[in-house]
Amino acid sequence: MATNEKEQELIKGLQDTVINFKIDDAKRLAEEAVQVGADAYTMTMEGLAGGMEVVSEKFDNHEYFVPETLLCAKALYAALDILKPHIKSTGTEAKGQVVLGVMQGDVHDLGKNLIKAIFESAGWSVHDLGRDVPIQKFVDEQLRTDSDIVMLSAMMTTSMVGMKKLIPRIKEKNPKVKIMIGGAPISEKTVEEYGADSTADNAPNALQEAMTMLETLRVM
User: Fold this and answer.
1) What is the pTM of this model?
2) Can you name the CATH fold of 5-86?
3) Among 26, 32, 72, which Cα is nearest to 53's?
4) Where are the alpha helices (DSSP H) in the chain?
5) CATH class entry, domain 97-218
6) Over the stretch 157-210, which tens digit does the pLDDT of each residue have?
7) Are 186 and 214 spatial neighbours (Cβ–Cβ below 8 Å)?
8) What pLDDT digit, counting tens, does each position of 67-113 carry?
């Protein structure tokens, strides 16, 4: 959490730069945050991710469309590039690896991109397969990287059904791997029905869930 007035001011400023896709201002505020010794992790999670959550809501409400959200993401990454080298350990064990992608037939990758930014900020190795990813590619990438967690995203029910075929294939190859699924049509019921391990309704919660799953894996 932000501990002083200056940090709160920087957080609000970073949120604004993401929401209103002010790329130059995002860089400037990130540099200022580093100069004054503000906590880079807090700036990222509360500032950049906080702003992107608002962008996600605007996208869902049809206030923003793909061009706007891409510009918002550019502002986020412009600031993140400056903040990331200054992020200190969050006090947890060594971070894990995650394979991340949007299911085949789906090109909605705003949520996936936000997850990637948050996980990279927290020190995870992220293997991003992008969007419209064929089922077998997830299986191959998990085996190639030996990642702890596979994260599957779908914003449409038509692409979501592919998860039901994919999850058993991944588990067959590596029974220990944890699978998190997310997106608008995903619920706890979907997790149970498809044989996944978890879901989360936003990026910070996804990170917390992933941390919990990683701890479980490390004691197995």
Assistant:
1) 0.76
2) 1.10.1240
3) 72
4) 5-19, 23-35, 40-42, 49-60, 66-83, 110-121, 135-145, 157-160, 162-173, 188-194, 203-218
5) alpha beta
6) 899 999 999 999 999 999 999 999 998 889 999 999 999 999 988 777 888 899
7) no
8) 898 899 899 989 989 998 888 755 444 589 999 999 999 988 877 88
